[in-house]
Design a protein that fits this description.
The structure is a homodimer. The first copy, chain A, is of the alpha/beta class. Chain A has one domain: TIM Barrel (Alpha-Beta Barrel). Chain A is built from 12 helices and 8 strands. An 8-stranded parallel beta barrel of chain A has the order 1-2-3-4-5-6-7-8, surrounded by 8 helices. The radius of gyration of chain A is 18 Å and the shape is globular.
């Protein structure tokens, strides 16, 4: 079993690129396996080391993730790179444990309403699935860490506002179930920076030595303000997708995840070394954009570049 | 003479809508005088009270500001609304003092290079122009307050990085010259939230009882993160433009000011009452968009709306 600190060193800022997973959840087109390999290779060359690259879901319904095993192999072939994949049920978990994946991502909804609508199970059943995942992983002697995201943690497309106490109750249950990392997800982009600071700070306090991650969407324009607040509060693991790819079926008209390139810039302006080169990252974006005609790619850095005449560059 | 506190009450967050000034600086088209009146009326109905509505510049070169006097009259006709207009030289100042304008905006560049290139004068000469403006205003017994913006305060399109000490030196000189408000402008969108916090905090300390304002552009995606940092540091006056209208000749490809609607949302999530209704603001945006075909209007709230099912609304 991997120790979580091997993948997420304490205090170091880690940016997880989720474009090949969350980014492809709803797109009309998706890249070929070869293009995905190139996407990963270019991002790796730019300094990216944490890749969430697919889901263990039925290939008939989610053809974009049919090559999840190849993607895990691709990431594994890059020294020091870490692969993460989503599993939503026992079947997916078992499939994941047949691979070399470094991190298995599970999801629990913050609200009962969304849990039932999205996963057709109660939140308590979802927590038990995480407990089972930790036990099965242990029994199999598999190295993967278990990352459990709490979706709709900052607001729910169905239930509306979410009581922080409900989120903290889930955090405690998930820690008790054995999750290695807890993630707070603003799935539909309801959050503001104060709310992010409050929820992140309290979750860090509950998690103690275990890391937490923050997954933000830019639906209402506050994604990077929220990321800044999360960093200020002590969060060190943040999700983003190349070009802000990805959306949510519960947030029509919404932009997707926060933009990976812009998040790199934010972190660097705040003095957090990301080890990621923005110029090199642009090459990955080119491949992604060319492979998905008609999909919207977002991002200010991709358009304006880093500040000119300042000698600015990421801390590679 | 108006006391600055009459226009900018201490501790209350004030959002200045600069769409009809900074927003029109570079657009290819601009609204008719009647449409501008409607724009102001709709914004006023939504709760906006601070309008920067034009520049005293030669109408031959800047036809979009030829009706600046009518705009001042329009704002003045709305009870409790405040008008601000830009002046860049002695002639403009004298013209402004012939009107009922509540606030005269002057600009000093943070760097010598930009000052010479943009205004063809030294920074010291620009400071002396502010001193003269304060004296002439005083002698005329005119009510207008003098707001002096420091452009390029966070980075310069020509000189690159800007030493904070240079900005603080200008702040002190401008206070000595009699400016009622000092503004810090990220004219080309170089700033990150830490830099905004550092510069804003120190400027507030220097300004003492006098208010400061922060003028941000969203060129590199950090506009709202920077606004959030400015609010956290104690700034209470922020500029923004409807739909993020406006750009800068020194920042090609750049989006303009931070988006007024999104800034309202940010403030409200942070517990700062803006008194501005987002639904009503959308009516102003409709008028603005219809009057300027081909211009880019930005904004996440305009696309996604405030969080649904939460009973969310601005604090009107």
């Amino acid at each position: 079993m991997t120790r979580v600190g091997d993948i997420y060193p304490v205090e170091k800022v880690v940016l997880r690129e989720v474009g090949l997973r969350d980014g492809l959840q709803l797109t009309k087109t998706f890249p070929s396996t070869d293009t995905k390999r190139e996407w990963i290779a270019k991002e790796y060359a730019a300094g990216v080391r944490h890749f969430e690259i697919g889901s263990f879901l039925p290939a008939t319904r989610f053809p974009q993730f049919a090559d999840v095993r190849e993607m895990i192999e691709t990431v594994t072939a890059h020294p020091g790179a870490h692969s993460a994949a989503l599993t939503l049920n026992e079947r997916g978990l078992k499939d994941a444990l047949q691979t070399d994946v470094d991190e298995i991502v599970c999801v629990v909804s913050a609200t009962e309403e969304h849990s039932q609508a999205n996963a057709r199970r109660s939140r308590d059943d979802a927590v038990e699935l995480v407990r089972m995942a930790c036990a099965v992983r242990e029994a199999a002697g598999h190295k993967a860490i278990i990352n459990t995201g709490i979706s709709m943690a900052f607001g729910c497309s169905i239930a509306g506002s979410v009581e922080p106490a409900e989120v903290f109750r889930l955090v405690e249950k998930l820690l008790d179930a054995g999750a290695d990392i807890i993630g707070l997800a603003d799935t539909v982009g309801f959050a503001g920076p104060q709310q992010v600071a409050d929820l992140t700070g309290q979750t860090i306090a509950l998690a103690g030595d275990q890391p937490i991650s923050v997954h933000l969407h830019d639906t209402r324009g506050l994604g990077l303000a929220n990321a800044s607040a999360a960093l200020d509060t002590g969060a060190r693991i943040l999700d983003a997708s190349l070009g802000g790819l990805g959306g949510c079926p519960f947030a029509p008209g919404a932009t997707g995840n926060i933009v990976f390139e812009d998040l790199v810039f934010l972190c660097e302006t705040k003095g957090f070394a990301t080890g990621i080169d923005l110029d090199a990252l642009a090459a990955a974006r080119e491949i992604a954009e060319a492979s998905m005609p008609g999909e919207d790619f977002f991002g200010a850095i991709a358009r304006a570049g880093p500040p000119p005449n300042t000698g600015w560059r990421a801390s590679v």
